Fold this sequence. Notes:
alpha+beta; 8-stranded mixed sheet
Amino acid sequence: MIALLAAVVVQSKAPVFPLTVPSIMRGYALVGHAPRGLRWSADGSLLRFSWAKADGKGDPAFRNYIVNRDGTGLKPDPGATAPEDLLPANADRFDERSTYAQGGDLYVFDRTEKKTKRLTATQDGESDPRYVEGGKAIVYTRAGNLYRLDLAEGTTSQLTDIRPAPAPPAAGVPASESQAALAREQAKLFKDFAGGGDRPRRESPKNGNGAAPSPLPIQIPAGYEMANLSVSPSGNGVAITLYESAKGDRIAQVPNYVTRSGYTEEIETYEKVGDRQSRSKIVILELDTGGKHEMAPLRPGTVGRVRWSKDGRFAAVWADAEDNKDSWLLTYDYANGGDVTVLWTEHDDAWVGGPLKGLLGWIGDDVYFGSERSGYSHLMRGFPSARPPRSADGEAQAPLVAAKPLTSGPFEISDVTVDEERKRFLFLSSEDGPAKRRLNAMSFEGGAVTKLADLTADDDAAYALHPDGKTLAIVRSKPNHPGELYLEGKAVTQTPTDEWLAGPWIVPPIVEVPARDGKRVPGRLYKPKDWKKGGPAVVFVHGAGYLQNIFDGWSYYYREYMFHHLLMSRGYAVLDLDYRASAGYGRDWRTAIYRHMGGTDLDDQVDGARWLAREQGVNPQRIGIYGGSYGGFITLMAMFTAPGTFAAGAALRPVTDWAHYNHGYTSNILNFPQDDPVAYRQSSPIYHAEGLRGALLICHGMVDTNVHFQDSVRLSERLIELGKENWELAPYPVENHAFRRPESWTDEYRRILNLFEKTIGPGYRK
């Protein structure tokens, strides 16, 4: 009898997860944050990491933990004590010594003596120390200039005296082409405007750095500012990144209404697409010869971060065209008179991109980089030293063989790192299928690939290679479980709460939906166990556009994952697609939306709805659609331009007019609005609002600094002027693009659920 009572008590305490909107929208309080920042101790006995275990009460804070190499002894980290473990991640190492900056002063740690030596103690802050001249000296930055510390003699000398450009005379700047075009479109779209005029923008002054006299004065040219300094490992070259700021660009403001002061306050965000853009270039100065060499885009554009070869002979940098169609890999060769040549060109008639865009590093005198020329993102090795002698007229010649691919095939390579000690690359590959990720190792020379481990495609996936070069600490996830830390194949952590683990979480099967152009679109299908033919369905559209959501791991959209279980419990099927523009499927999939967002990406949603009706028995009159950000945009395009396909749609924080979004994202896909107005008109929901037929819900945070609340306000005015009735707008006064408060998430998803329940669920009427 006593045993029976005990069993009843134990059973009554078993956790139960209530599948309701308020319960789901507790968010990170339920699932926590996966371990991150994995780092082995210098002796390899311990693994350190940060972790935010869910406590069921609120968004948990990250705390530091340690665990033994075999996965035992998990506990809070008392703090590192070994000097090697206290070194910052950006310490520069030469043989057994490492130099670093801390608190504005310079230090050197000697691994042989196990001692740390302080090198400077000044009022001015020193930063970015680097060994040069084979470890004989350290070059560092102080007050915007480079200094050299001779380690043998202990003497310091100033290498540069960088003098800022003279301030230009004050003058009015006319409106840019994109600003003028924007104003013209406003007049065409709307009849009435609030207020009586434009408030002038207050310009922020640009302050330069003064400098003391020095042996090598360097005058920054008029119109430029210095953005970065980088010294060559040989100590005889300095790369200066010069930045030409845009003149007359206008920063969009977001009003914040709920403030401590009680007054409306403005938040600066970004210039809108097509506005004047900043440009940059690199000038390399040879301190020993006085030579000056420029590394700049072949057309107006910007340069990335310069990378020096280990001996300082070469420098390399990616330069990007302002129109996004070309990227050039530029190399500088000190031994060949400072020649600057184009080693490689990435061109795309749409826009240059992919998971390895910008990858650049050195292995000896060769560079490694990423390329999408084959149609998929792959690792390359370039040969700047394979150069024939100069021609008779003194012209530099292109390398004999510019580069060769180290990987190839119809799959993507990403997350490339270098294991210098073992002369190999480590990288992630999707060669086992787009939904899979594996960690591979490959020699610097290319050739055979060794699989080290299975990983997942989520942002939390991570690994740390043990000092022995074999043992791995891994963070990976499952479709129905967040990322956990694994050592020797065993889970070390449990991140979610016991309550959440008691939920009905399934692994939705991956399906392929046939598209009208013959492609097969990957998706996940959530289908109730007691599914009845003629039931309702919802299509979910992930955000960002270039994001992968269909893979064998934990989704960024974990709240939606739980919400889809709630919909299943009420008889809905749910389809989630990696539509055209999604990441993980190669260049052609990525660029399929060029000049027409809301084209093939929307076709995939419509084809998905038809597939649900044809293959899954869904009533074609009972299909809804929803999504946030880019997903909200697609929802609007579906409701406006695909009449009869979706009976209801919930557009969350949607872009309604791409001419009002930021430059970096939009100009890639649609060019500039003043140059390609057709692309913007056919891609912007505000121009198609007259097509609204079904029920529409719009939800938007009012302090959204990504997709501005103005987008939804402008669309609301358009719908009012068109006399549309079956729509509503829910504003969230204190929320940004990603909501912060569970109360706001709950209100939003209650509205979404009510919309579907009234239109395609129990409230459906023929």
